[in-house]
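Action item from last meeting closed. Structure (510 res):
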């Protein structure tokens, strides 16, 4: 016979439930259980490799490398043999004041010192610079950060004032200046000057030769055409690609023309014989863009296979395969200062690459949509990127964000900028926007009519560039034409005033 179930009062049952609940969650409120150091290091090493493996071992300065790696408790579980070799980044000053700055291999790249290095440097500074009043015996941390080229936006204003006062919290805070928007510079409007037709397909790419006598275009009709810049007449047609020609570039160091296309081919044309003399094999999918390094015999191409490749022009060797993007790499640009290669991708990121190491120096993730265009300023140490969400300006060498240029709400295919600070953005819907580089003011919008016989939807701008005199803007369009724009010589500040509204405050970051 089954035993009778013992009955308890409600008070007893509630008490038992409370006790069981307390026993279950007591570890959350009591003293935490000591961690096993070995397993914790292993866990963190695995996590670092899984989530940050692509950017974990970016190039670092030689003097800061040893200290950073010895002080990191999690770097012992995962090391890279490439870091053992001595490596030093050289380039130019991070923020040159003008085009007259000479570049040399002896000029070191400025990097931000660590906190320990800051205090060590503070004690080493001369007393005349360090001692400004009786209460301060060494240079302040804020001064050292500024001398090292650190942008002030990386430190809050109130914390900066505390550091300048020697670190005491009784120091009065410095009031922040009200943000002001500088008045944009006046630029004359641009007008359509010439329409050149001759291609049988979309014109996808443009390049102007160094002598400014002719320019070259690549098209979806699989041909490359060379045009006289002054008259707009066809000089030569080159055939050899079996698919759309997506990129062309003319060398400043040799009589070579380089082209790439959706047929995965990268070709080197000898313009003295007008024939292909080299092929660069390696890309696994369509090649979307290429660029030549200004001082080294190196060619960089980018592709739909999510990589950019660095080629030795003469030996055809694949020097580096720049892997890290997770989608099509749509644009690539080279410069002689560090970082030397900049790529924009459909994975919404921009990467700054170190050409010596073949590794990423910085990954810029501010864009929310694909980046199809990047342009470098010819005089300043800055660049711009174009995406359907915004145009953004950045500062080298670390890719510090400067400002947004908003209003061109379309797929941005191409960007161009001249020395006068005129930034041009061309979009898939046929619109061209002209911007003042310094303030981001949009001073002109152009939507040229399509060629007679073409649909209105065939008005996309695929490429644009200024000639070397910067007096003409050449665009490659979807209506199979090439359009040339010039500044309006009759325009003045009175006839075309700047429609500027100072009450709209845009905070520019430095």
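Sequence:
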């Amino acid at each position: 016979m089954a035993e009778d179930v013992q009955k308890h009062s409600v008070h007893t049952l509630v008490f038992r439930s409370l006790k069981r609940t307390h026993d279950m969650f007591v570890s959350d409120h009591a003293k935490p259980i000591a961690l096993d150091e070995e397993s914790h290091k292993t866990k963190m090493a695995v996590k670092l490799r899984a989530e940050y493996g692509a950017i974990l071992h970016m190039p670092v300065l030689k003097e800061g490398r040893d200290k950073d790696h010895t002080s990191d408790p999690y770097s012992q579980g995962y090391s890279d043999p490439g870091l053992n070799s001595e490596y030093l980044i050289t380039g130019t000053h991070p923020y040159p004041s003008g085009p007259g700055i000479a570049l040399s291999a002896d000029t070191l790249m400025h990097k931000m010192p660590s906190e320990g290095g800051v205090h060590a440097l503070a004690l080493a500074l001369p007393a005349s610079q360090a001692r400004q009043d009786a209460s301060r015996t060494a240079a302040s941390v804020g001064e050292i950060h500024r001398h090292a080229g650190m942008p002030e936006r990386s430190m809050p204003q109130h914390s900066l004032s505390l550091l300048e006062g020697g670190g005491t919290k009784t120091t009065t805070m410095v009031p922040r200046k009200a943000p002001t928007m500088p008045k944009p510079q006046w630029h004359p409007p641009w007008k359509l000057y010439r329409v050149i037709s001759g291609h049988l397909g979309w014109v996808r790419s443009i390049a102007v030769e160094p002598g400014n006598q002719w320019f070259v275009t690549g098209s979806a009709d699989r041909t490359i055409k060379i045009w006289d810049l002054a008259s707009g007449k066809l000089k030569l047609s080159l055939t050899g690609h079996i698919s759309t020609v997506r990129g062309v570039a003319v060398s400043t160091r040799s009589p070579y023309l380089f082209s790439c296309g959706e047929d995965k081919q990268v070709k080197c044309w000898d313009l003295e014989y007008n024939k292909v003399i080299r092929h660069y094999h390696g890309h696994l999918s369509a090649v979307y863009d290429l660029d030549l390094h200004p001082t080294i015999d190196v060619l960089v191409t980018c592709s739909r296979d999510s990589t950019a490749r660095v080629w030795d022009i003469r030996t055809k060797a694949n020097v580096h395969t720049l892997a890290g993007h997770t989608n099509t790499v749509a644009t690539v640009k080279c410069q002689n200062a560090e970082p030397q290669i900049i790529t924009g991708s459909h994975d919404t990121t921009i990467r700054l690459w170190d050409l010596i190491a073949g590794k990423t120096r910085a990954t810029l993730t501010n864009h929310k949509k694909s980046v199809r265009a990047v342009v470098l300023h010819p005089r300043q140490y800055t660049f711009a990127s174009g995406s359907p969400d915004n145009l953004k300006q950045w500062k080298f060498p670390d890719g510090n964000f400067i400002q947004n240029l908003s209003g061109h709400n379309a797929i941005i295919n191409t960007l161009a900028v001249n020395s006068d600070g005129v930034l041009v953005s061309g979009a898939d819907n046929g619109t061209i926007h002209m911007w003042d580089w310094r303030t981001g003011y949009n001073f002109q919008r152009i939507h040229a009519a399509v060629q007679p016989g073409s649909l209105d939807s065939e008005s996309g701008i695929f490429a644009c560039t200024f000639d070397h005199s910067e007096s003409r803007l050449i665009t490659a369009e979807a209506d199979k034409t090439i359009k040339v724009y010039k500044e309006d010589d009759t325009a003045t500040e009175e006839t075309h005033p700047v429609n500027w509204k100072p009450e709209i405050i845009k905070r520019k970051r430095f």
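Note appended to the action item: The CA atoms of residues 88 and 305 lie 31 Å apart.
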